[in-house]
Amino acid sequence: MAAPEVMIDATSDSYNSMSSDNVKGLILGLSSSLFIGASFIVKKKGLKKAGASGVRAGVGGYSYLYEPLWWIGMITMIVGEIANFAAYAFAPAILVTPLGALSIIISAVLAHIILQERLHIFGILGCALCVVGSTTIVLHAPREREIESVREVWDLATGPAFLFYGALVIAIVLILIFHYIPQYGQTHILFYIGVCSLVGSLSVMSVKALGIALKLTLSGMNQLIYPQTWVFAIVVTLCILTQMNYLNMALDTFNTAVVSPIYYVMFTSLTILASVIMFKDWDRQSPTQIITEMCGFVTILSGTFLLHKTKDMADGSTLMAIKLPKHVDEEDGFGQEGTPLRRQESTRTS
């Protein structure tokens, strides 16, 4: 009878330890998903309104900066990110991070209701696979190591492995921005989202460093006197500005219900990869945990492929022969840039 009693006591202690702070973290995490999911829709409405009277963000315009509705969406996203950051102060990452997947569902539902952006049944299945795969990876990811100074994070960030990753990310982003996006950005969603996700993986590492510095500073160990803290702050600023710019282009060009899950999947996967490289998380994991994470990654790839290939599927049947940006005026047969649909079709087939 001793073993069951020990098990019951351990379960009870675990439950009691989760009943206070973890509930706060759960509420903050759910609030974060709600705000972030809604922000995609509000920003999209602002982008559409700004594009009707100025140059669209999808073709390099910045008229949305003068649109109050876009700023409401931006503020909503910032509130969500603050709630997400605060959630990590009350609950472990294994509880908070998977809640980010709820923003996909919220965004897709609101896009269907407000923006009339229909998501096909196979797209819904793709979203489900993306969420399941991402959740599998996060639930089996190791806990973060204890760090007592921002200089420790700097040492990790300047290690050979992460320096190589950072250089590779920067090189890929520059190639995408200057070569692929000008040619294929309007028809291939992965180029815009790729830039956001790659840059985002670097920004999260810097945000973690700033979070550690802030926590240590508030506890009495001032980290603001170290130049490394300010270097991380500069990196965060540059990365967020880049992410915001190309995410706006993606939202202005493609359906929100497609942008949100693909961005979540790629961003989560690359962020976990960056964390594994920088913090050497896999050194503290068993082969079973690593294999489980790989299975989750394969699930993510499957969901992304299904979602991307069925985003233009018609009401019950076949894929559309023409895959175009969604800015199309079907009544007169012309896109918003004035290109006839038949001419676009012949261009694609040639």
From TrEMBL:
Basic and acidic residues bias (residue ranges): 340-350
Keyword annotations from UniProtKB, A to Z: Cell membrane, Endosome, Ion transport, Magnesium, Membrane, Transmembrane, Transmembrane helix, Transport
Subcellular locations according to the entry: Cell membrane; Early endosome; Membrane
Region (Disordered): 330-350
GO molecular function, one term: magnesium ion transmembrane transporter activity
Superkingdom, taxonomy of origin: Eukaryota
Protein family: Belongs to the NIPA (TC 2.A.7) family.
PANTHER family, per the entry: MAGNESIUM TRANSPORTER-RELATED, PTHR12570
Function description: Acts as a Mg(2+) transporter. Can also transport other divalent cations such as Fe(2+), Sr(2+), Ba(2+), Mn(2+) and Co(2+) but to a much less extent than Mg(2+).
Subunit structure: Homodimer.
UniProt name for this protein: Probable magnesium transporter
Annotated organism of origin: Castilleja foliolosa
